[in-house]
# Entry
Amino acid sequence: MILNKPENSADLRQQAERLYKALTEIQRPYHRDNFDGRMDLTLPQLRTLMTLAANGRCSMGDLGKSTGYHLSALTGIIGRLSRKKYVSRIRDKNDRRVVKVVLTEKGRKLTRRIGTKIVNRTSEMLSRIDNENRENLISLIEKIAINMKRP
# Structure
């Protein structure tokens, strides 16, 4: 596949702005579905919970790398989630300085429910696009995700 490079940086900037606007619009229904006042969670708290659901037990350092949050912010997020009984902190038996974070049963139930809502919403959105365009869209988003991980 030959990559078509924008002719100048103004084209690239305009494309980046269009993409950002579209991604913001895509996120809006997810945000509305999951933050309708019933859950009492912030977006960083939800992201942290979903990261734990995907990765299982994590050290604070690994959780910070996965979520992109600094350790100082993550400490507050985990503290609030712990008070809400969604997560537990577990000290490493061999090194008491190491703290692992794990979902509680209440946290697992919540993330399963949210995960189902996300998949349903995404399926509904994708059903409005023909299969070839869906595959192209997913492939391009996967490429962007891979490139964003590179230094």
Notes: The domain at 40-149 is CATH 1.10.10.10 (Arc Repressor Mutant, subunit A). The chain has a mean pLDDT of 88. Residues 9-34 form the longest helix (26 residues).
